[in-house]
Amino acid sequence: MQDGTIAVTPKLLARFWAKVNKAGPDECWEWTAYKNHSGYGRFGASGKVRGAHRISFLIAFGPISQGLFVLHSCDNP
Is the pTM of this model over 0.90? Predict the structure, then answer.
């Protein structure tokens, strides 16, 4: 799934970060909004519901290259 077509606007950033419980810099940050049946956070953007971890990557690093896997460093969905 390509996520690079999402415009990272101040409105999107505010909506996204309002759903994150930010712990310390070396701790897992918990998604507080909708999660799928496997426990993965989901976030609606540009008319589609996507993985919250993929949106987080997009915000931090830009578009996700084709074939790239975005994984959790703490392995917590």
Answer: no
